[in-house]
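Please check these two lines:
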Amino acid sequence: MKKASLTINIYDYTDHRRFLNDAYLDLHRQDADISYRYLQKKAGYSVNSNHFWQLLKGRIPMSQQAARRFGGALGLNVKQIQYLSLLASFAQADSDADKNHCLEQLKQFNGFKNRQKGKQIRYEFYEDWRLPALRELVNLDDFKEDGQWMSNRMRLHLTAKQAVKGVAKLLSLGFLVRDESGKLKQADPFIGNFDDSNQDSEPASLALRNFHRQMIELGKLCIDELEQDQRLVLGLTMSISHKQSESIRELTREYMKQVEGILLEDQPVEVVQRLNVQMFPLSNVKIKKQASGNTVGKQAIKKL
């Protein structure tokens, strides 16, 4: 019987646990004798340790040593094992700063560049707030593909050189295209970017969180730099139930969809604006006690 070997490609994955699970299923389909215990033994662990199962379920973190041992048991080469270890570090990072550091390392792998191009494109698009802004600037009725014109038209800091470089990057990423006359236009009118929880992978969600941070900082600057008739800043501090909280969230999502509907109206395009919406708890979540006395649910948010 031919020896079982992986038919899946690790560079198609950005989640180490999903890869481990799919790798096991791939090998098990080829050879029914390959089990969790088989992989544990091959990796140098006790067959009774249920280590592999705990990794799959997220009960324990994956160390670099575990990545080397299980990667070897699955037949990965040295580069692929390094990639697996970085995937685990990315997933287990405590902060987005650490995740960004891991992602920059993942982007250096040719396999990632070739097979995760879509996710990488989205990450690069949201790395710099100027790119989404330039993408919208192209829609202005009086737009000119001139670095100095774009620099002058943007209220926030954007040099002519940055503008030209940004447009070139948007073209290379596929967010801008040229029509038959050579004029710049958006490849798609909407790219669906208002909810980071709806992204198809953690790298894509991370990219959007990074972008939201930049936009929140710009929003803070607008309070001091813009007259009141040029900006809209609203807020409400409230004490509500979890059910009411979810209702407000859903109402806000529907509102954002209505905004997108307004954007489709046939109106002159005169200015680029940004709409930020934030909702977050100011108090800790109430601890619920079960009959046994154990507590359930998230107990607290991080102290600011």
Remarks:
- Confidence is low (pLDDT under 50) at residues 296-300.
- The chain is about 50% helix and 5% strand.
- The domain at 10-115 is CATH 1.10.260 (434 Repressor (Amino-terminal Domain)).
- The first helix runs from residue 16 to 30.
